[in-house]
């Protein structure tokens, strides 16, 4: 990479980490150390990623759980592989059933937005195909932390408190009692520095490890999920779980100024980041902290996002080909819409033709970009009694409009916000990157990639730099650290600017780059409790 390792445009609380044998970057220190421990036991980067991912369900349950979905980009043997472990809607659910129950849009909480969890299957499949150690070894750190407990870190503790206050107001039914029993056993959330443990979680992880996830999809855990769903009006059944298989997919990418930027194909929203970068590569940028840079980035992202929201869904149900959306002709057409003032974006017609993110690498050349998430923090508010399994609410992104591409249908996968990223150059790996955080994720990908390629920032500086977030229409949120003269200039161009009081909604990223001589260079997000564990 062409970056200055000593250049920081803004004050940083963290420094770059260099290593040669292995590296794991996560949003929670204990998870990074869990991955590193597995590397030291003879595991590879894939084993380390799975270890860290499983551990994060314990040490950062505010963002993910055993009932999450997952995606991965894996570089191994000179090739990049994609894994889509997002689960579909239950086969018994339907728009008609929800309409009869009085719903005009998908609810946020409860059983109705629960889609089939894919994370345990992702761990097992990654381990089976590319791992070196048995899953029982790889999941042992997570099991230990669940059984023995750990003290809460600051960002985690604050997120837990916020979630508890919200859930106490909105989760009223009997089906939500197991969530409070699990995550607020003393009638309140655990405090920063206080030890929280979940023996049920430990037992579930051990069952998953010992059966290579079969217990979750065909055995005891599947039966428990089915039973609790039936008891409380849910649609998820054991038959849904038994039929699920994660899918190996071909990553999608574009050339951006001589680098290849890779994402998971739909139903993930990585396509949005690629659409925006495809538009932006037709411009030249003099400096990062320049109003023209901010303006064009925001406008390109808006155009990309409205296309993504219009077209992205389960790939078996998409009406537009990804190749058409990423064509140079379509990028040029969209680029011409960007003028000097903020536009109100509309979807184009192309020519036809509260998540965890982690990165891992080893000394053999294997690299993993991995992301898993419930959704909206703890997810649906549904925890299966006696298991510690908190279920995602990914179905909330389905539309109940029968004309919408992402309309709810039985067995269909919804528009998915979580996206891992990967960067190569001339077919050789640079490394994994990601920025977690709902619909901020493609926006974070765009900003981190441009910070790296256009403005030559090192990985830590690329993460530290102030971010903006398009919300809707002409509304844009910016972090307090953004230069005020740029904020004022954007407002004069018609952007409706809101200066955020905190950085909670601007994503949390991790990066590991590999230099030409094989040295690993890692960075972690200053907006969270992240750590780069290296060997």
- Record the strand order, biggest sheet: 1-20-19-15-14-9-8
Radius of gyration (Å): 22 Å
Sheet of most strands: 7 strands, antiparallel
Overall mean pLDDT stands at: 93
- Whole-number count of domains: 1
Low-confidence stretches: 6-11
**Terminal Cα span:** 21 Å
- Contiguous helical run count: 19
Structural class: alpha+beta
Determine the strand fraction and express it as a percent band: 15-25%
| Overall spatial form | globular
How many strands in all?
21
Helical residues, percent: 25-40%
Show the helix and strand layout.
Layout: E1 17-19, E2 22-26, H1 29-40, H2 45-59, E3 69-76, E4 79-85, H3 95-100, H4 119-130, H5 135-138, H6 140-148, E5 150-151, H7 154-170, H8 177-183, E6 195-196, H9 199-211, H10 214-217, H11 220-231, H12 238-243, E7 247-249, E8 252-256, E9 259-263, H13 270-280, H14 291-311, H15 322-325, H16 328-335, E10 356-362, E11 367-373, E12 383-384, E13 389-390, E14 421-425, E15 428-436, H17 441-453, H18 459-464, E16 468-472, E17 475-478, H19 484-492, E18 496-499, E19 508-514, E20 520-524, E21 531-534
Parallel strand pairs: 17-18
Antiparallel strand pairs: 1-20, 2-10, 2-21, 3-4, 3-11, 4-7, 5-6, 8-9, 9-14, 10-11, 12-13, 14-15, 15-19, 16-17, 19-20
Helix pairs in contact: 1-2, 2-4, 2-6, 6-9, 13-14, 13-16, 13-17
Written description of the protein model:
This protein is of the alpha+beta class and 535 residues long. It has one domain (1-535). It is 35% helix and 19% strand. The chain has helices spanning 29-40, 45-59, 95-100, 119-130, 135-138, 140-148, 154-170, 177-183, 199-211, 214-217, 220-231, 238-243, 270-280, 291-311, 322-325, 328-335, 441-453, 459-464, 484-492, and strands at 17-19, 22-26, 69-76, 79-85, 150-151, 195-196, 247-249, 252-256, 259-263, 356-362, 367-373, 383-384, 389-390, 421-425, 428-436, 468-472, 475-478, 496-499, 508-514, 520-524, 531-534. The strands form five sheets. The protein has a seven-stranded antiparallel sheet. β14 and β15 (428-436) form a beta hairpin. The protein is globular and about 60 Å long.
């Amino acid at each position: 990479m062409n970056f200055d390792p000593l250049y920081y445009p803004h004050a940083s609380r963290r420094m770059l980490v260099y290593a040669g044998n292995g590296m794991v970057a996560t949003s929670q220190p204990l998870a990074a150390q869990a991955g590193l421990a597995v590397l030291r036991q003879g595991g590879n980067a894939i084993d380390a990623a799975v270890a860290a991912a499983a551990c994060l369900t314990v040490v950062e349950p505010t963002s993910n759980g055993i009932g999450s979905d997952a995606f991965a980009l894996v570089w191994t043997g000179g090739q990049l592989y994609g894994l889509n472990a997002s689960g579909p809607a239950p086969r018994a659910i339907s728009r008609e059933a929800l309409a009869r129950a009085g719903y005009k849009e998908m609810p946020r909480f409860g059983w109705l937005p629960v889609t089939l969890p894919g994370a345990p299957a992702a761990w097992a499949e990654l381990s089976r195909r590319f791992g070196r150690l048995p899953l029982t070894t790889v999941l042992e750190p997570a099991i230990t932390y669940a059984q023995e407990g750990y003290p809460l870190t600051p960002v985690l503790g604050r997120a837990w408190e916020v979630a508890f206050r919200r859930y106490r107001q909105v989760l009223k039914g009997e089906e939500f009692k197991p969530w409070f029993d699990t995550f607020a056993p003393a009638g309140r959330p655990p405090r920063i520095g206080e030890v929280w443990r979940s023996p049920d979680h430990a037992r579930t992880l051990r069952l998953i490890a010992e059966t290579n996830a079969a217990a979750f999809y065909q055995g005891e855990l599947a039966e428990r999920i089915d039973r609790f769903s039936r008891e409380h009006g849910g649609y998820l059944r054991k038959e849904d779980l038994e039929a699920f298989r994660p899918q190996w997919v071909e990553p999608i990418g574009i050339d951006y100024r001589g680098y290849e930027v890779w994402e998971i194909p739909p139903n993930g929203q990585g396509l949005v980041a690629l659409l925006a970068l495809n538009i932006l590569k037709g411009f030249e940028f003099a400096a990062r902290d320049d109003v023209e840079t901010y303006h064009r980035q925001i406008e390109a992202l808006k155009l990309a996002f409205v296309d993504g929201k219009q077209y992205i869904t389960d790939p078996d149900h998409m009406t537009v080909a990804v190749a058409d959306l990423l064509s140079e002709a379509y990028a040029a057409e969209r680029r011409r819409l960007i003028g000097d003032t903020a536009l109100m974006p509309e979807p184009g017609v192309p020519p036809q033709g509260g998540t965890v993110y982690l990165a891992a690498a080893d000394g053999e050349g294997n690299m993993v970009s991995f992301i898993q998430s419930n959704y909206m923090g703890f997810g649906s508010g549904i925890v299966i009694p006696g298991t510690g399994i908190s279920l995602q609410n990914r179905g909330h992104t389905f539309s109940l409009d029968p004309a919408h591409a992402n309309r709810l249908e039985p067995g269909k996968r919804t528009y998915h916000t979580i996206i891992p990223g990967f960067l190569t150059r001339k077919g050789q790996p640079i490394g994994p990157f990601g920025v977690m955080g709902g619909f901020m994720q493609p926006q974070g990908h765009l900003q981190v990639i441009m910070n790296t390629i256009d403005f030559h920032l090192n990985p830590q500086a690329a993460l530290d730099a102030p971010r903006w977030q398009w919300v809707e229409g002409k509304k844009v949120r910016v972090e307090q650290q953004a230069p005020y003269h740029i904020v004022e200039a954007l407002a004069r161009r018609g952007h409706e600017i809101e200066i955020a009081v905190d950085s909670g909604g601007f994503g949390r990223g991790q990066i590991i780059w590999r230099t030409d001589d094989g040295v690993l260079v890692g960075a972690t997000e200053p907006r969270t409790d992240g750590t780069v564990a290296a060997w």
